[in-house]
């Protein structure tokens, strides 16, 4: 059974691809393999690696512009998740009734693999990687794609997996219509990227709930019972899928919960019960207990053995740039959380460490509401070192909560200031709450620069 509910998309003709990143180039290769006449267009520059790939595959492309007259001839358009709905070209395509879809939607038509799809404002990458790790250890022939790893479309074109674990962002979901997830997961919904949703939380929530569209009674919907916005959304967005909630606040008959002995209990209908003490998890902290519950529920649906699940949850090592321990120098721990590009991620990070924290934060502000961090900053943070161009709002938000807020001129400078302020037993935490595009290419480069600066202390 295809993972597209009812395909109405053209299966041949002129395919235009907007954006030549990982997803765009992958979609181009799949399109070529399926017999489309493919043209890739990027308004910015295309990296040398991707250009070399496109040339090798003999796929036509352009950079630094969109040839609108040409693109408007397309039978189908696959667009990068980074291009907003209100971009003039996207509006023109939609006005002309040319279907504009995401790489995930495009590729799902061509695979009958099971699709386990994970979204949420926080914890997506950790949960996706943990699930992938667990399934791999359980001997499942599994691919990893979406917001992470190699392009889904490229893997559908050139690999043969039985299952894909997909990390899915709201931007991807916005361009998904017929797509069907065998297992859909919403970890949590907190304000993020509101600049793309006209500053309306309900638009962002609606975007996240697109993950359950087209699900049938044979599919599963996994979600957090403790998350306010998700629970509000449940009453608005209905699905026939079997519900598997997870919670740390109550008991549930099916789903996942924590018992009085601090055991995570996972119960899925017609499968044996899984139990494991929270102390034994390799990823500690309240938020990681949620991530483990969500991954554990997927593993149960996949009928993994309890032993495999337990060993995986004990041995999994977190991904780079997410609460990554860099070094302990002079009794000070340095933590790289560069992937924390929103306020809620920073809240999680601060919650994970004991006082005293020197927090390095800042960058391109996405309309952040720093209010939710105030109490934690007051109780745990002894100084804030600002990075990036735009530091005014950080100063305004936290001037009453912490005695020291200092601007820095570079990552090297920020780390040096932080190490000067830190005493034995303190934690220096890079957790920016912002996008990285002012000083760095992406959050990975920001994290690498942080690690370099720490190692050169």
From TrEMBL:
The keyword Ubl conjugation does not apply. Gene3D superfamilies: Mur ligase, C-terminal domain (3.90.190.20), Mur-like, catalytic domain (3.40.1190.10), NAD(P)-binding Rossmann-like Domain (3.40.50.720). It catalyses: UDP-N-acetyl-alpha-D-muramoyl-L-alanine + D-glutamate + ATP = UDP-N-acetyl-alpha-D-muramoyl-L-alanyl-D-glutamate + ADP + phosphate + H(+). GO terms for molecular function: ATP binding; UDP-N-acetylmuramoylalanine-D-glutamate ligase activity. Keywords: ATP-binding, Cell cycle, Cell division, Cell shape, Cell wall biogenesis/degradation, Cytoplasm, Ligase, Nucleotide-binding, Peptidoglycan synthesis. Pfam families: Mur_ligase_C, Mur_ligase_M, MurD_N. Residues 118-297 form the Mur ligase central domain. InterPro entries: Mur-like_cat_sf, Mur_ligase_C, Mur_ligase_C_dom_sf, Mur_ligase_cen, MurD. Belongs to the MurCDEF family. This is UDP-N-acetylmuramoylalanine--D-glutamate ligase. The lineage of its organism: Bacteria, Pseudomonadati, Bacteroidota, Sphingobacteriia, Sphingobacteriales. The gene is murD.
């Amino acid at each position: 059974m295809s993972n597209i509910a009812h395909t109405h998309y053209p299966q041949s003709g002129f395919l235009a691809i907007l954006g030549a990143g990982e997803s765009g180039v992958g979609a181009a290769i799949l399109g070529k393999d399926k017999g489309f006449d493919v043209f890739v267009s990027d308004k910015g520059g295309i990296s040398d690696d991707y250009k070399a790939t496109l040339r090798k595959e003999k796929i036509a492309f352009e950079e630094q512009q969109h040839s609108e007259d040409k693109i408007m001839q397309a039978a189908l358009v696959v667009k990068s998740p980074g291009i907003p709905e209100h971009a003039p070209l996207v509006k023109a395509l939609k006005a002309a009734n040319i279907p504009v879809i995401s790489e995930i939607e495009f590729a799902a038509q061509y695979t009958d693999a099971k699709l386990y799809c994970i979204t949420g404002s926080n914890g997506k990458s950790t949960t996706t990687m943990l699930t992938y790790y667990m399934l791999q250890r359980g001997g499942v022939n599994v691919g990893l794609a979406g917001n992470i790893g190699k392009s889904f479309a490229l893997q559908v074109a050139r690999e043969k997996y039985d299952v894909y674990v997909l990390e899915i962002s709201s931007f991807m979901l916005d361009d998904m219509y017929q797509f069907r997830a065998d297992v859909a997961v919403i970890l949590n919904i907190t304000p993020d990227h509101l600049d793309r949703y006209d500053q309306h939380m309900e638009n962002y929530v609606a975007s996240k709930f697109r993950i359950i569209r087209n699900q049938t009674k044979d599919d599963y919907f996994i979600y957090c019972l403790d998350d306010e916005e998700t629970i509000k959304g449940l009453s608005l967005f209905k699905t026939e899928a079997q519900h598997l909630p997870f919670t740390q606040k109550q008991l549930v008959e099916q789903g996942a919960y924590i018992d009085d002995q601090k055991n995570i209990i996972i119960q899925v209908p017609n499968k044996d019960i899984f139990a494991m003490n929270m102390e034994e998890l390799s990823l500690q902290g309240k938020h990681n207990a949620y991530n483990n519950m969500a991954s554990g529920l997927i593993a149960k649906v996949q009928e993994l053995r309890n032993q495999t699940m337990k060993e995986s949850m004990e041995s999994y090592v977190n991904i780079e740039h997410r609460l990554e321990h860099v070094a302990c120098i002079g009794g000070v721990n340095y933590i790289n959380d560069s992937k924390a590009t929103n306020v809620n991620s920073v809240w999680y990070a601060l919650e994970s460490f004991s006082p005293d924290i020197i927090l390095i934060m800042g960058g391109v502000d996405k309309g952040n509401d720093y209010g939710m961090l105030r109490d934690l900053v007051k109780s745990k943070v002894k100084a804030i070192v600002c990075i990036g161009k735009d530091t005014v709002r950080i100063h305004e938000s936290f001037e009453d909560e912490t005695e020291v807020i200092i601007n820095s001129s570079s990552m090297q400078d920020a780390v040096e200031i932080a190490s000067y302020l830190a005493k034995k037993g303190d934690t220096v935490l890079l957790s920016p709450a912002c996008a990285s595009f002012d000083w760095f290419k992406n959050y990975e480069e920001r994290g690498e620069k942080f690690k370099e600066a720490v190692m050169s202390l």
